[in-house]
Fold each of these.
Amino acid sequence: MHVRGTVAGEVEVRSVSTSYGETDLAEVPLQLTAVDAAAAPDGGPESEPLAAAVSESDLDPDLDHEPTTVTLWNKWTKSAELLEPGMELLVTNAEQDEYQGETQYKTTGDSYVVVEPSFLVNVTAIRNWVECPRLYYLNKLSGVPLNYPVVKGTIVHEVFGDLLRGRDLEESIDARVDEHGLELGLLGESPDSVAEDVRENAGAIEGWLEQGRLTEDDSWRSEQLLISETFGIRGRADAIRRGAPVELKTGKNLKKEPRFKDKVQAACYALLLEEHGGDVDTGTLLYTKNSALDRNEETGDLTPAKDFSMGDGLLKFVVRLRNEIAAMEMSGDVPTGYEGSAKCEYCFEQDTCMVVSGRLDQESKAGQIGQALPDEELEYFERFYRAIEEERREVHREYAKLWEQDAQERADDDRALINLEFVEKRPLEGGRWELRARREGGATSKLREGDLVLASDGHPVRGQSELARIERLDDEIVLTADEPVEVTRLDVYPSELTTDRLLAALHDALLKGDERRKDVLFGRAEPEFEDIEETFIGNNARQNEAVTKAVGAKDCALIHGPPGTGKTYTIARAIRAMVERGERVLLSAFTNRAVDNALEALLEQLEGVIDEDRIVRVGSESGVRDDMEPYRLERAGDPEDRLAELQNAQVVAATTATCGSRIMKEQSFDAALVDEAAQLTEPGTCAAINLAERFVLVGDHEQLPPVVRAENDLSESLFERLVDLHPEAGVMLDRQYRMNQRIQAFASREFYDGKLRPAEPAVAARTLNDLEGVARADLPENLRDPVSFVDVEGDGSRYTDGEEAARIAELIEAYEAAGLERSEIGVIAPFRAQVSEISAHVPDDVAVDTVDRFQGSSQEVIIVSFTATGSLEGPIFEDYRRINVALTRPKRALVLVGDSNALATDPVYGRMLEWARQ
Ligand SMILES: Nc1ncnc2c1ncn2[C@@H]1O[C@H](COP(=O)(O)OP(=O)(O)OP(=O)(O)O)[C@@H](O)[C@H]1O
């Protein structure tokens, strides 16, 4: 049987004498959460995953009060030493014992002990960890840099996958080298020499594959993402042959046996495959630099493929290694290197390790060199390191939901599209597949075109599942994937990439950052400005001051832009001024949408100032707006051409996440302008500003804060912190070009100290009458004012209100009858459930969404559904900054729909009611 629970007290390891001699044991007090008696008695890891097998009724009601003793024997005591109260523990194939009338459990010879099973550890992390735990940490801190061995390794792996899918070798090499043109250009490599290098490695693969294929043509499959909910491991096996893992290594190994760390990696995949029903007893390592042809006595064993048998002991060792990582990640400790048996003198990273240890004042086996960072910087590093790791744990909680939630729950949470009808699979060029499925109209989810998702034939972890890209998302869904899956379900696949990049940005800002920059960020020096006489914008004093500050800043400038105050215009004007001074500029923002918006305004400003080919947009095809596609930097092609295109660019536009990519990290700029800066975490902002000498942050901390899962220091933006720390570096834009006077009044008073004004009389006097074919007089009387309130009594339910939804449908009809187009009306609701409810009532072409989706955009008419009921508990929109965004989207008419009695119980909403009813 399997037992699972939470560690309820201290764990002690001791030695006892048994008939087999001296043995270790650890008694763990476990608050049981699940006992699965149905697990196969001899069931190895292949028995049904615990999360799947257990239901509430399987639990003995007596068991969840008092902790139960679970005894871990022998080597599992190594994992017991890692346990701290509060950690989750899973023991598979345990045996039940009665001791002095109490039920206890103990490990058996078939048991696995898994610490924090919901934390998915990557197979590559386990491989790094066995090499050296400190190396694992250093890799995590600084990310993988752009270097030739890494790029070549990637290409060889891609070619391997292509060969398995039946692609011709030469065609594959040409295509794959071409796809990496930009990276190769940055590395100064020529396509011919890279192709030759790859050919040398691929030759060994091809020869070996030919042998395998003669007999077992169809038992191969290329790279597959595997997730184990029992062992908490995740990874992509390079290939699977006859059900056993094959790992490709782009190196030489002349010993008879595979390297130990390579075996560990293959053993991880074996565990993953066993959970998916396999029975794996061998693994194969394919060393592509070995060539069987010139084998002789002196040169050692040159066969590229080395098989080894996978014993039980190795699999259990691997789980113990994995437990070490999970425990460290949960407790937030930093590895020193003493945890493993690595020898520093043979390590290529010894110098880096000593420098990082010295500067961060961390204990390490390699020792420390250099001077430690000042205390406040060390404190900052530790605080943000912890915050980012907390965020990572939240991402892992998302992964766990893949198996903890059932299909319907995931669909209700917008995390999955389920019950799709599989239509067809079609082979594509290069051995990939196009998959098509149909969904019922109206099913919503967080999934968007361009997203990577888990496409499965029923279950993302337990079924056949494959990482796929969404190419089209209408009623018919089109996906591309490496392998054909008969798709009936799509799941959001949470990404850790953002978290990884935050950590690297934090590391770079502190350990590689310029001293003067850090003085300013830590408040040890005041930002300085050059005097600039020029007038950049004649009709708006604050905008002009903002451009002057941005251009003259020696360190940084902060532009605070309330809704509609011309932030984008000001950014574009400032960049033009910088470009005219011969500077190289980075334009960045949190979302692709904001980057493209700002780029559009910038293109207008730069017309005739520089050639269009000196403006480059870096991003993926699905991320970049269609009309900005001509500026998008193509990665594939001739390395020299690709490099020239990037190096020649005087303006580069990319999201902050992309600024953390290997390619962008090689670039440097005179200035970085970051839009939507109030929505970025501090390390997220650093990813962009690390690349430039000076920076300008533009944003509004009275609108949406950073999007983070955990509640910690990441939820305050660098923008907001610096506005407080260096008020003299900031300018607030105060004239808005969007809203009718009456609409803007409340937001101005409530959020901007009454300082926000319409920029021109024409803006102040805007009404629906200005729109062609629209007459206000045709509206019902209660909707003729630019701001109106429609009272709908709450129906008592927390997240939806059908009555409000129905009234909103009527309002939309009334606006349509008065001549408005549906596309000119937007509806905002606080909860996703209410968004779905309203969507079911109104025509498809009316935009209905949560505030987050509306930030940065505007509409002629906005209707806000409050879904308020009873006595409000806290603000419905979570945070008043969200209500600010909602109320400042319309240009000409705003309608608030809600229960006035409920709203009146909150002071801010109370004042809002008064204003709306004036
Ligand atoms: N100085 C100006 N003179 C004339 N028009 C301006 C000026 N500044 C901005 N505008 C106009 O005002 C409108 C809003 O400007 P912009 O899109 O730059 O605002 P924003 O602050 O970026 O908006 P958001 O709050 O949505 O981010 C645009 O149509 C822009 O052309």
Amino acid sequence: MTQEQWGQLQRKLLGTVGKNNYANWIEPLEFSDISEGVATFHVPTNFLGNYVAQNFGDLILHQLAESGQLVRRVNFRVPANSAQRPTAASVSAPLSDAAPAPSLGADQLPGAPLDRRFTFDSFVVGKPNELAHAAARRVAEGGPVTFNPLFLYGGVGLGKTHLMHAIAWELQTRRPDLNVVYLSAEQFMYRFVQALRDRKMMDFKQIFRAVDVLMVDDVQFIAGKDSTQEEFFHTFNALVDGNKQIIISADRAPGEIKDLEDRIKSRLQCGLVVDLHPTDYELRLGILQSKVEAYRLQYPGLEISNQVLEFLAHRISTNVRVLEGALTRLYAFASLVGREITMELTQDCLADVLRASERKITIEEIQRRVSEHYNIRLSDMIGPKRVRSYARPRQVAMYLCKQLTSRSLPEIGRRFGGRDHTTIMHGVRRIEELRVQDGQIAEDIEMLRRTLEA
Ligand SMILES: Nc1ncnc2c1ncn2[C@@H]1O[C@H](COP(=O)(O)OP(=O)(O)OP(=O)(O)O)[C@@H](O)[C@H]1O
């Protein structure tokens, strides 16, 4: 058959399959040759070859026979010099062979690289993230899909990306046979736009539909981007219908993402929606302690006291990324200047970070709460009386002012009836000792801190 004859045949097919099908599936076919009753067509991708073999193979065979060609089988293959793997899909007469499932080379996977540090081992679990962690663990086992999608949401720097990478690492170890793809919603959009521009939408669809586990980070990014949302919706549906696992993250719950189509919102809510709550003091301290382990190897001989760690966990409550950054800076600074990590160095080195994450808790607020807690008058807390029933609450309030505000000792002294800074220092030290010796004091402080921070 000549190219011209194939051209005529294509036009006939256009009348039968319609304009869209023709443009997507028939036009890209390049006639190669007929040999021993087998008509071979070159196709740009395996996916396209498989699809045409399954859906239009018999029709093409029939048209070839009608135009007088002696053909008993049609064969669609990616030419050997193409970037695609040269596998073939074919249709025989009178029975069509089942086309093989689309296959993907590892190099074709569209995912972003994974961060080596983001594993389950390095993820510290506490009350605020235990549900998200448990759900991520379950998905990472790679067993039957129980909730689809898993939707993780939470504020900035609370560990969403860390958990997604951890799932991907775990799956790569447990189920190396699976195509696991992690990428941000932004990368999804750029791939989609590029595919549109290069007229490679079929490749795009092939790649994303051949994935076994798809993770899309920061999905709120596609809100308001209509065509990307549309494509995301189709990809999502195709994978869910194929019982493939999807994991999505966002900075808020699906229902709260503005400009996201309702049908997508409702799809995202179909599986398990879990949030990562803001960190609490214990979790922050746990994260710092686990990071210190790593720094011990990197900076041998450079010690950091619990007091400094507690101070950081108290004072930097914005997000874990900032907390980690503060610790990194502290180690780097201390090692550069060859000094020990003391409270003084910490306050100097991290002055800007501490200022930025400064709490809005005021000295007055602390004094009021503490006097309410111990059932004494505010004037007695600030006044000169030294009886234990006033002095102890006063010291607790001084201690909390030091911990929860960035006020200096002289400033705190002024607000406590013009006391000297050494009196404040003494009060703070006394409570530090009592916290260790007296369970009741420790409990009171914890309770007060929680109410003040809430
Ligand atoms: N529970 C945790 N244990 C250990 N490290 C954590 C934990 N939570 C967060 N981190 C660390 O905090 C940093 C920020 O986390 P991550 O990038 O996962 O946040 P995110 O929620 O994806 O933030 P964003 O909204 O900015 O994308 C990372 O270095 C991560 O390892």
